[in-house]
Amino acid sequence: MTSKFEINSLNTQIQEQVQHIINHKTKPLGALGILEDLALRICLIQETVSPKIASPTVVVFAGDHGITQEGVSPYPQEVSWQMVMNFIAGGAAINVFTKQNGWDILVVDAGVNHDFDPALPLQHLKVAKGTQNFLHSPAMTKAQLDEALEKGANLVQKIHDQGSNCIAFGEMGIGNTSAAAAIMHKITGIAMEACAGRGTGLNDEGLEKKIAILKQAIINNPAYTPEEILQTFGGFEIAMIVGAMLSAAQQKMLIVVDGFIVSSALLIAHALYPQILDYCVFAHQSDETGHKQMLQFLKAKPLLNLNMRLGEGTGAALALPIIQASVNFINEMSSFESAGVRESEDR
Ligand SMILES: O=C(O)c1ccc[n+]([C@@H]2O[C@H](COP(=O)([O-])O)[C@@H](O)[C@H]2O)c1
Ligand SMILES: Cc1cc2nc[nH]c2cc1C
């Protein structure tokens, strides 16, 4: 399933032209810092000097995790479906942040351990009612992995076909910091102690236990390729995000990466298609232990660091206005010439 994507590195043909436009805006050279890098990249992705952020969409994938049976989260599993209901009712942080900016939000049941009423305004893409406990066996079957990847990819294709060129990924799933930590350890080789964190708020004793369980799970379940790692330790929401990211990059959409769990999906996508990074903007550095090193592994520079560790796509939603500003400045700012402002002589 993962071999079918066609992801191209950026075409740099218009790079000099775009850089020239940026350099001649009414500002000292380079004075818009990272906004300038963003603007250039969005121009190259869209192959235009007049880029647009069209119908930005935040997609929140939810799934449950069998590993919660081992007490790796301070919250009970039912919080996953209860928070999905909260997303639908508009009461979660991600609802507030998307509403503030007028962004669209889609909530996906990727594999929550609950029977949702089919009439609810959800993307009903459930693969199964939660994964298996990966302490004892792989989290999902190969068929389930392929189903999740395919469903994620198809959903993004649909969003793209409806006119969106910018997609932000979020997630919800009690226990998913354990899945993400296991993926991080397997892909990066970084010690489990540096990958596993407190998640929703484990105390010292809880964290120690989580690390011990994850280490044992790694011993119990050999997994080598990125697909095997995802199948063995992933969640349905994480696998769906992998498929969604691959499809988004194939469609040349801008991908806004949220926190620790969404970044773990990117670790898998990147291991399969390194060029996917050309399409990614890293919204923030989460406070979850491990995210900083995960970002360093990807050579990623996050836009924000607000000590957040919520997930849901909240970091991504907060970064979207910055991304929008980078597009606005290249489209709307005057040049020295058009504004009649004198330029420095030694440019
Ligand atoms: O996005 C992050 O960086 C992040 C960091 C810590 C926790 N979370 C959220 O907390 C939940 C997982 O935490 P836990 O402790 O149950 O593994 C899940 O719903 C995530 O959205 C999210
Ligand atoms: C209340 C709550 C809200 C969340 N949002 C994302 N992960 C979450 C975890 C909990 C526990």
From TrEMBL:
EC number(s) given by UniProt: 2.4.2.21
The pathway where this protein functions is: Nucleoside biosynthesis; alpha-ribazole biosynthesis; alpha-ribazole from 5,6-dimethylbenzimidazole: step 1/2
Entry keyword annotation includes Protein biosynthesis: no
Q: Which Pfam families match?
A: DBI_PRT (PF02277)
Top-level taxon in the UniProt lineage: Bacteria
Which reaction is the catalytic activity of this chain? 5,6-dimethylbenzimidazole + nicotinate beta-D-ribonucleotide = alpha-ribazole 5'-phosphate + nicotinate + H(+)
GO molecular-function annotation terms?
Answer: nicotinate-nucleotide-dimethylbenzimidazole phosphoribosyltransferase activity
Sorted alphabetically, the keyword list is: Cobalamin biosynthesis, Glycosyltransferase, Transferase
**GO terms of biological process kind:** cobalamin biosynthetic process
The annotated active site, in chain numbering, is: E312 (proton acceptor)
Explain the purpose of this protein: Catalyzes the synthesis of alpha-ribazole-5'-phosphate from nicotinate mononucleotide (NAMN) and 5,6-dimethylbenzimidazole (DMB).
So what family is this one in?
A: Belongs to the CobT family.
Q: Which PANTHER family match?
A: NICOTINATE-NUCLEOTIDE--DIMETHYLBENZIMIDAZOLE PHOSPHORIBOSYLTRANSFERASE
Name of this protein: Nicotinate-nucleotide--dimethylbenzimidazole phosphoribosyltransferase
Give me the gene this protein comes from: cobT
